[in-house]
Automatic annotation (TrEMBL), chains A, B:
Keyword terms of this UniProt record: Oxidoreductase
Location of the Fe-containing alcohol dehydrogenase-like C-terminal domain: 194-401
Positions of the Alcohol dehydrogenase iron-type/glycerol dehydrogenase GldA domain: 9-183
Record's protein name: Long-chain-alcohol dehydrogenase 2
Coiled-coil region list: none
Gene from which the chain derives: adh2
InterPro entries xref list: ADH_Fe/GldA, ADH_Fe_C, ADH_Fe_CS, BDH-like
Gene Ontology MF terms: alcohol dehydrogenase (NADP+) activity; butanol dehydrogenase (NAD+) activity; long-chain-alcohol dehydrogenase activity; metal ion binding; methylglyoxal reductase (NADPH) (acetol producing) activity
Listed EC numbers: 1.1.1.192
Length: 401, 401
């Protein structure tokens, strides 16, 4: 029975050309912005210069912090925080993909945080102390994938000498004040990155769809609507990156896939993401590629425990007829179709395709341990439907070989 | 092509039993609450006493303003505002149906408003001056219908000596801080009121679905999801008011039907609501009943201009086969089914059933004029797809006879 609290105060400014508004938007929150970027694609595309131009025109001065890596590290966050403090920045802009936006959120909170920021991150299912305050955060996504622009979560990799862990934080002070979402910025995203984004979007939705409570028919329909739309428009964005209508639809999907609207009240968990995070932490596998490998395997495992839900997925997403089939066969047919879709847009769906090299049983066991180091319930299981013991995580990984 | 701004900062606390949290919630915003209620049903049901108990336990003192009428009048709002000022209330709680919540929002804004509050309301498509500030607003819906609990709109009837007009206001300062939504409070809603609520919810969604821009596939799916869910659970709530699961699903639907998630980016208008408001303003027709009459007639008119969209409605909502049919026939079949649904839950679908008495052509003409007095575009038409000239509004009303 649904019982929940929902809150998302991020203002969303969406549409081709909206980058122009960045300066005006930011000037409402501060006079000196830390402008956080990633590996340089925003400079190549010219978006960076346009952003800086818009900021300067609005009398916002800019302190640049570039070079946030994929799977952003806490040490990077801490360096950027030092810069923000030294320069007395009063607003943080994250312009880039999920890594950049996530790092920006944690930078904005770390500025005020007493103690080591690792204590605000989830470790073994617990958080020492959440931040109570953050500088105003403005997000400018350049990739349609994580949905980080309009939610209060961030994925960060702890890279201390004593601890290496890809983990996360989710707390209200991290909500961006404004997300300036300009789908034109995604035109230059390469084909394969676009495909990984599509996979990430769909996986955000399937996590809630398969791991949430029963009795959420509206959320089910919302989830199906996002998946169907992404499966229609995603391949168009992959095959022709300059198709602005496709870019718009995919970017809009990426936002609603993780701004809370689809998962609201479902009390969901995200076991596929948790398992994948271990892979990308250890091998710098692109997140979307890792998800494409783990999700179908996880689905085949989980379908045994909730076949009727996976049967619904098969029917409503792929229109597969239920005639003469039991739920589990129908479920498996749907999962096969889903895996085919992922392959059709160029995603890998097997561990062997991730460039990790030879994979041993010991490695699977280690990955399961690392996953549970981030999050586990009181019985030591990874939350989800069903909650997963270590051996079951290993079984899923084996199914992905 | 989608280009829009979205913002909805209302915190939603949803679930059976959540009324208990009211005091704690309100105490975060004020110490002395104006508690606005309607005709007394909250007293009969005991909800009022429980609310007051929760407020007192949280050291919030209560100033009662009861008796907000259906189709709430500006004069009532002004009396309540005087009371709020005199008593120095610092927070406004609207506990009741849409009328009560809408009145509460406008009371909260009128407290700070310089000049006559009629100037903040829409007249002939224009607003003199929107309010810039409002007391914190907390909503506690006791009916699943308007969705007012989580949006920034309010429908108010101007009842000056010189002017009588059912009109509205929509502006960000009217967003409730918190909506405390307890579906248990709707258990006592009578059958017919429940049915009207169901009609209101569906109509909120169809307005966006039929009057929005093209190229919003996710919003289409969201809209269809809400309609399908309400058509499944609404009749259950109507036939057995104590079915809490049905009450929950219908109430949740009522919120998402008008909190902006379904209509976001569609740039929609609401011609059916605008025409209906005239009827309920003049004859105190229940809003949901009026909608049930106007909507099918409007749909039959509008389908000629956008048959493919109404054909989609027929297929996706009712699963009607398109085989061998042109879009318009398919559309009309869907509208017939929709009208049958409304009748099946006890709604009227003809003007003659509204208790207005004999209806003349002069009356239809007057109603069209009154509707355009509230809102019209630069060419004097009622916004929608298609925009409606006076004669077309009359034609629609004639089709509803």
């Amino acid at each position: 029975m649904m019982k929940f609290e929902f809150y998302n105060p991020t203002r969303l400014i969406f549409g081709a050309g909206s980058l122009e508004q960045l300066g005006k938007v930011v000037s409402q929150y501060g006079k000196k912005a830390l402008l956080v970027t990633g590996g340089g694609s925003v400079k190549k595309s010219g978006a960076f210069d346009r952003a800086v131009g818009s900021l300067k025109a609005a009398s916002v001065s800019v302190v640049e912090f570039s070079g946030v890596e994929p799977n952003p590290r806490l040490s990077t966050v801490m360096r950027a925080t030092e810069l923000a403090k030294k320069e007395e920045c009063d607003v943080v802009i994250g312009m880039g993909g999920g890594s950049v936006m996530d790092a920006s959120k944690v930078i904005a909170a770390t500025v005020f945080y007493k103690g080591h920021p690792r204590d605000m991150l989830m470790r073994a299912g617990k958080v020492q102390r959440l931040p109570e305050k953050a500088l105003p955060i403005i997000t400018v996504p350049t990739l349609a994938a994580t949905g980080s622009e309009m939610n209060c979560g961030a994925v960060i990799t702890i890279d201390d000498e004593e601890e290496k862990l890809k983990t996360f934080i989710k707390t209200e002070v991290l909500y961006p004040k404004v997300a300036v979402v300009d789908p034109e910025l995604t035109i230059t995203v390469p084909k394969i990155q676009t495909a990984y984004g599509v996979c990430d979007i769909i996986t955000h939705v399937t996590e809630g769809y398969f791991n949430g409570i029963d009795g959420t028919p509206i959320q089910d329909r919302f989830a199906e609507g996002v998946i169907i739309t992404v499966m229609e428009w995603g391949p168009k964005a992959v095959s022709d990156g300059s198709n602005i209508e496709a870019r718009i639809q995919v970017q809009w999907a990426s936002i609603v896939a993780l701004n809370g609207w689809v998962q609201v009240g479902t009390n969901y968990s995200a076991p596929v993401h948790m398992i994948e995070h271990t892979l990308s932490a250890l091998y710098d596998v692109p997140h979307g590629a890792g998800l494409a490998v783990v999700n179908p395997a996880w689905m085949r495992f989980a379908a045994r425990f909730r076949p009727e839900r996976f049967a619904q997925f098969a029917q409503r997403i792929f229109g597969i007829s239920a005639m003469g089939k039991d739920d589990l066969s129908l479920a498996m047919e749907g999962i096969d179709r889903f895996e085919e879709f992922l392959r059709s847009i160029g995603c890998p769906t097997r561990l062997s395709e991730l460039g990790i090299g030879e994979i041993t049983e010991e490695m699977l066991s280690y990955w399961a341990d690392k996953t549970l180091e981030v999050i586990c319930d009181e019985e030591g299981k990874l939350p989800g439907r069903p909650p997963l013991r270590k051996e079951e995580i290993v079984e899923i990984l084996r199914m992905a070989m």
